[in-house]
Design a protein that fits this description.
Belongs to the UPF0102 family. One of its GO terms (molecular function) is nucleic acid binding. There is one protein chain. The protein has one domain: Trna Endonuclease, Chain: A, domain 1. Helix content is about 35%, strand content about 40%. It is built from 2 helices and 5 strands; from the N terminus they run H-E-E-E-H-E-E. The N and C termini lie far apart (about 40 Å).
Length: about 120
């Protein structure tokens, strides 16, 4: 049972990230990378919007039963995102770094919520 649930969650997460990438591209973002691993975490999507380099955290929910996807980002996740932003800022020293959150709710018609600058950096 555990392996099936883990597999389903991974598939759901991938589906959410694919929707987020399409959504961001439609908004004019250039996707620089996905699932970028660092020693202290992973960036779901790294993108460029105008002059900004944007770290995008994707939160997927299969239903809204337990609140909004964005509410899933706790203190520890925010701290990790800030560490990742710090690492990215060293790679792009002359660029503004921003942390956005894209929340995706699954359903017959998935709902997408994009919060720019959701985590202060």
């Amino acid at each position: 049972k555990g392996a099936i649930v883990t597999f389903f969650r991974k598939q759901l997460g991938k589906f959410g990230e694919d929707l987020a990438v399409s959504f961001l591209k439609q908004k004019g973002f250039k996707i620089l990378g996905q699932n970028l691993r660092f020693r202290f975490g992973e960036i779901d999507i790294l993108a460029e919007e105008k002059e900004d380099i944007v770290l995008v955290e994707v939160k997927m929910k299969s239903s809204d039963e337990f609140g909004e996807p964005v509410e899933e980002i706790d203190y520890f996740k925010k701290r990790k995102l800030k560490q990742l932003a710090q690492a990215i800022s060293q790679k792009y020293p002359d660029r503004n770094i921003r942390i956005d959150v894209v929340g995706v709710k699954a359903g017959k018609k998935p709902a997408i919520e994009h919060i720019e600058g959701a985590v202060e950096f």
